[in-house]
Every structure is written in structure tokens, then in C-alpha cells.
Design a protein that fits this description.
By secondary structure, the chain is mainly beta. The chain has one domain (about 20-145): OB fold (Dihydrolipoamide Acetyltransferase, E2P) (Beta Barrel), CATH 2.40.50.840. About 5% of the residues lie in helices and about 35% in strands. It has one helix spanning about 20-25; strands at about 35, 45, 60-65, 65-75, 85-95, 100-105, 125-135, 135-145. The strands form 2 sheets. The chain has a 5-stranded mixed beta barrel with strand order 4-5-6-8-7. Strands 2-1-3 form a 3-stranded antiparallel β-sheet, with no helix packed on it. The termini are far apart.
Length: about 150
Amino acid sequence: MSDQQTPPPFRVLPALDDENRFFWTSGEDGRLRFLRCQDCSSYIHPPLPECPSCTSRDLRPEAVSGRGEIFSYTVNHQPWDGDDKPYVIALIALPEQDGLRLTSNVVGVDVDVDIDVDQICIGRPVQVRFEHHGDVWLPVFELLASGVGR
């Protein structure tokens, strides 16, 4: 019996720089992080050099729970990478702050032809996990049992 795992899907990886490195590498320890203003406590995403709420430059990466819910989603059927299997692109609302959202993929969902609304729907709770690709840990989300979100 083989211990082979399905290889991770093809991904276009972000270019790491001093402003975003913390975000794309924070999954190494399994924690999702966003910049947070140390003056007004606002989370900031995508990373910016100053807080859009108070213009402070005292920003630091801070871990969030990694839980959220599907705010919106679409199923992509375009075979961009040559793989014709559809996949879910979702906007994930995070409970730490109103309006804190992350565009990602929902993984572990079979969406071949028709999407099963019992599987995926707006408001469905999700939990982050990470796909490791070289120096990057991409945050993706798995469905949680209904009612287990926030």
C-alpha cells in the first residue's frame, strides 16, 4: 500500500517583500496573521504602510482565530492551469473585525457539476488551513459543521 498524497494544486505564488512576507509565511506555525494597528487596534488587509483608520505607522502582525464564514463565493470552471476540475473561490469574513475579509479557496469540496448548498453556502463556517509551496504558506479554508463558525 502506498502512502502517496494528492499533490497540491498548481498555484501562482505571490512575490514576497518586506511588507507582505509575514502574511505569506505565517502559516508555517499554523496561524493566520494580519497587520494590526497598535494605536487604534484596527486589522489591516491587504498590508499597508500606515493604518487607513488613524494613519499610525505602528503596525504589527497579529494572529487571528482562523475561523470565519463564507461571505460570498463563486465556482470557477475555467481550466486556467489545464486542470478542468472546478474549484471554489470565496470571500471569507473573519469575526475579529467588521469588514475584515480574505479572498481564498474553499478546499475539500466536490463541485463537479452542481454545487450542493448543504455543502457550501453563504454564512457557512470555515477554518483556515495552509498549503505549503516553497517559501509560501497559502491560507485556504475548509468547511466546518454548520453552526460551528463564530
